[in-house]
Amino acid sequence: MSMKSAPVNDPEGVAPATGGEERRTRASQRTLVWWAFKKHRLALVSAWLLAGMLIVIALCEFVAPFGDRHRDSEYTTAPPQVLKLWDTDGPDGFQWGLHVDGYTSEQDPRSLRITYEPDPADRVEVGLFVKGEEYELFGLIPMDRHLIGPKDMDDPMYLFGTTTDGQDLLSQLVYATRVSASVGIIGVLVAFLLGIVLGAVSGYFGGVTDNAVQRVIELIMSVPSIPLWLGLAAALPPDMGPVARYFIITTILALVAWTGLAREVRGRFLALRSEEFVTSARLDGSSHGRIMFRHMLPSFSSHVIAALSLSIPGMILAETALSWLGMGLRAPAVSWGVQLQDASKWSVLSGAPWLLIPGLCVVLVVLAFNFVGDGLRDAADPYKH
């Protein structure tokens, strides 16, 4: 007669943890945040979109069909072309191969305005990794290959149309993405460096130091951001070069944007400075800098990263608004705000609505950063883990 062993009950009355629960209890905070972030589908898709944007920024000379100084005065405000894989209307019948229809132009006898229409009889061959204008990839590697472009450099291939100056809107959009996104990212990094350092010093030391830093923050926050940006940008000399203006505008945006983070970091440090791990670090002889930035700051680094991603859209919108008003970046520099200057003229926009494409890019990128920031903020919520 076989004897069945009785089930062994947990002496504490607690059921043993399953494999998934045990894996979760052993996971690090970073792993828990990543698992929670993956469940936020919209944030995950936005993260992939931003990753693609970063690739475009890094390889913009290769991705853009033409250089940033390319102009074709023969085709000004020409409409976008449709990329086709085959052709059935050509003189040779059915044909395979990437191509676009060329242009045919007409001039209005009254307004003398030239309009362009696609011409199926004029086939413009398009290729991948084609030879085009020379450039230096990463400023180091000489190259003349472009991701996409006309096989004959003199043929018109303008997938997003052209601007009022005859520039390829797609190429200009690629270069503008690098400038506008880098202003936002670099500006936020500078602002976060100031906010973290000053907020940490204010909350950790307290007393006179805390009062001095908080009064400076209140002074800056008492001035409305938009008039302050406009005033500082208007003080720049009009003959300033594009590179110098780029760095000055980035600095102006950063010097105004650090106050919110500084207050948040100060509050965190005020709550953490009496914790046991901070006291242990002091008794162990750690320096103030090590305690602040090696022990206290990493305890809420996930929230800092979430706040970082949520601050970038505001910085991008600020640069776009300043450049659109003519007080930020100016031609020959190219940014989303500079591109939208043409779209602000109704006489131009009524005949060339594709000039609003940079505005659509601004909306998509800002929404993507917001979705990623929301996903990171929810994933970093300690009450969820």
UniProtKB/TrEMBL annotation:
Spans traversing the lipid bilayer: 42-64, 179-204, 243-261, 300-326, 346-369
Localization terms from the record: Cell membrane; Membrane
UniProt-listed CDD domains: TM_PBP2 (cd06261)
Family annotation (PROSITE patterns): ABC_TM1
Cellular component annotations (GO), alphabetically ordered: plasma membrane
Example of a GO biological process term: transmembrane transport
Gene3D superfamilies, alphabetized: MetI-like
Main localization (coarse): membrane
Domain of life: Bacteria
Membrane topology (UniProt): Multi-pass membrane protein
Name of the molecule in the record: ABC transporter permease
